[in-house]
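Hey, quick one: can you model this chain's 3D structure?
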Amino acid sequence: MDLLPGLRAHFSGCCFIILVLFCLVSLASAQQPAAGNEFDDLKQRLIKDGFAPEKIQAILAKDSVSFTPDGVSLFFIHSESSLNYDQFLSKDSIANAFKYMADHKEPLDSAQKAFGVDKTVITAILLVETRLGNYLGNQTVINTLATMASLTDETLRNRIWNAIPDQKKPKKETFLKKVGMRSKWGYEELKALIRYTDREGIDPGDIQGSYAGAMGISQFMPSNALKLAKDGNNDGRIDLFDHHDAIFPWPIILSTMDGNPAFPVSASTKCCSATTTVTIMWTH
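Sure thing. Here's the predicted structure for all 284 residues.
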């Protein structure tokens, strides 16, 4: 009989501990974005930055718009510097470039005449960018950019980290440093995407592109689409997936690219590869 008070006290203590743990877990869960609500904070940031609440809700609440750790995790694995640019010098690649020049002779000739940039240079760049429009990427751009922009949240960062295969994981410090930079970058690109698609009357959820959010035949990021894209066929709109519109920006870009810090090293690497391709084309 003397044991009962002690057992009751022990049992009460255990119940109290379980209750405290339950409360802590519940509190932690309440502070973490639930599946399907990952963009709630992002919506508020966009609204605070001047976007209409109804527009942001309409864009980010669609079933097709979602947090995509598998796709964005590629951003922390892939490196353009490791790509084999020699692939663009193969006989098939050169033959395809000549065929492209024949198929799109009118806009290429017009661009060359208007800006003085050889059409083989433009063709070679498009070959390096998207194999002349044949490889445009299969990631939904708004999912990529919204996911990247939302990585200010630690829980969401961990979901990206866990999506990277163990054998390909960078050092955690490297990952976190890159996430910090890319989250800010992703947010700015997301805002540019919303502005670009609003201007052109496009549903942002319909655009697919690279793992990094680059779009169209020329693989423009949304900020560059706003600044650099041109209406090459004068139809009153800029379509990044139209060959006329993909061709015309490049002569202007090339004339301002040298020494311009707005263009990343990767762009110079691609142009070097394209220049080599041009040299080979000229010898045929």
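One thing worth noting: The chain has two domains: 1-31, 37-283.
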